[in-house]
Every structure is written in C-alpha cells, then in structure tokens.
From TrEMBL:
It comes from the Bacteria. The lineage of its organism: Bacteria, Pseudomonadati, Pseudomonadota, Alphaproteobacteria, Hyphomicrobiales. It comes from Acuticoccus mangrovi. Residues 3-95 form the DUF1330 domain. Pfam families: DUF1330. This is DUF1330 domain-containing protein. SUPFAM superfamilies: Dimeric alpha+beta barrel. InterPro entries: Dimeric_a/b-barrel, DUF1330.
Amino acid sequence: MPKGYWMAHVDVADDEGYKEYVAMNAEPIAAHGGRFLVRGGQFTPIEGTKRSRNVIIEFPSYQAALDCMNSDGYQAALAVRRKYSTADIIVIEGYDGPQPGE
C-alpha cells in the first residue's frame, strides 16, 4: 500500500504565535504515524509560486494522512495555525510503481 503525504508551503506571519501550532500538532501527527521528511530548511525555487517554508510529512498510508488531517486534535492545531500563517496544503497518495530505469 502506498504511503500518504502532507505537502505544505507556508508563509509564517508571527513566529512566536506559530510555535503554539507546532506544539499542538505533535500529538496528532505522532498518533497517526506521521514523520517529517522536510521541515523548513534551505530550498531553491525553480518555477511557480513560492512560500518561505516547505513541509513534507510522511504517513504509513493515504488514509492515515487523511485521518490525521481530519482528527479533532489536528483541527484544533489548524485553527491556531491559521491565525499566524498562510499555507497551501495537500494530502497526496505516494507512488509505489516502477521507477525510471527499472
């Protein structure tokens, strides 16, 4: 079964306020098996619109990624995040098929 991912591009308006969101999202993400693959860090924009922060979280399955997003705990964190940042977020199913050169 393919994994599931959250892909987020975020502009943070209030770094101190955003810390409240970070503290609140830890429990629901961990409870659904989430693991950060990208959490900020250096990046080079190549094409399209960019935001100042990029995040990719891996989950054991697409359903686990959706369940986490829709959980009461994450929805409470999301309400806080929206006060301090603007984001583009998708939940997406991973690819588990053939790779180039195989």
